[in-house]
Write a structure and sequence with these properties.
The structure is a single chain. This protein has 243 residues and is of the alpha/beta class. Helix 10 packs across helix 11 (227-242). It has an eight-stranded parallel beta barrel with strand order 1-2-3-4-5-6-7-8, surrounded by seven helices. It has helices at residues 12-21, 28-38, 56-65, 78-87, 114-126, 139-148, 158-161, 165-184, 200-204, 216-225, 227-242; strands at 6-10, 42-46, 70-74, 91-94, 130-135, 152-156, 188-192, 211-214. Helix 5 (114-126) links the parallel strand 4 and strand 5 (130-135). The mean pLDDT is 95. It is built from eleven helices and eight strands. 49% of the residues lie in helices and 16% in strands.
């Protein structure tokens, strides 16, 4: 039987809307309550260095109130490492981060940053925080994750989300092969970025994947159908793809 495919809901863009106007509405904590009620399996937040989305106070509230596992996306900096070690979320996903980007534009170069990442990952592992590396679906990066002793990789699906035709099939195969390679080497593969109702099916059908992290699309769709309905529809499409 294919294992349950978890849905982690990224609530960053609830905070983005709040921050555009100031004040405290919409409240990310209310979004977490909806995720819990709608059957989401976890919460993802990206505490960026410029605090454009979630802020430190939001993380304080979420850690204190929710029973859902929290996946903290973080840049590979000393500041973010200390925040993760202080809060001890369920998981810490190390992502590349550039201040000028609108969103994460690609995977982390775990191979090229091995010496920088190794001591950070060791400290997170020692603290009982499940480390994930957000990487391209590439054998070289998975090999780096193995050497770095990261228990999880999250495969970047952004390129897949923007492909068509033969290129789409090629990218889907890259992701499938990468998930299989990770699983064979004892690493749990996740995936995320750019996933929608229309394109999630083929990704969800990859049997080795254990979790999808989806945010921007769900929050955007919530404007039209509500967050509860948005999450439930994504859950249904993921389940249908798993058969």
């Amino acid at each position: 039987m294919t294992p349950h495919l978890r849905l982690g809901v990224n609530i960053d863009h609830v905070a983005t809307i709040r921050n555009a106007r100031g004040g405290d509405h919409p409240d990310p904590w209310r979004a977490v309550q909806v995720v819990e009620a709608a059957g989401g399996d976890g919460i993802t937040v990206h505490l960026r260095e410029d605090r454009r989305h979630i802020r430190d106070a939001d993380l304080d509230v979420l850690m204190a109130r929710t029973t859902l596992p929290i996946n903290l996306e973080m840049a590979a900096t000393e500041e973010m490492l200390e925040i993760a070690l202080r809060h001890k979320p369920h998981a810490a996903c190390i992502v590349p981060e550039k201040r000028e980007e609108r969103t994460t534009e690609g995977g982390l170069d775990a191979a090229g940053l091995h010496n920088h990442l190794a001591p950070m990952i060791a400290r997170l592992n020692d603290a009982g925080i499940r480390v994930s590396l957000f990487i391209e679906p590439d054998a070289r990066q998975i090999d780096a994750a193995i050497r770095l002793k990261a228990p999880v990789v999250e495969l970047h699906t952004g390129r897949y989300a923007h492909c068509e035709g033969a290129e789409l099939a090629t990218e889907l195969r890259r992701i499938s092969d990468a998930a299989a390679l990770a699983a064979r080497n004892g690493i749990e593969p996740h995936a995320g970025h750019g996933l929608t109702f229309d394109n999630v099916g083929p990704i969800a059908a990859i049997p080795q994947l254990r979790e999808l992290n989806i945010g921007h699309f769900l929050i955007g769709e919530a404007i039209f159908i509500g967050l509860d309905a948005s999450i439930r529809e994504m859950r249904a499409r993921m389940d249908a793809a798993r058969g």
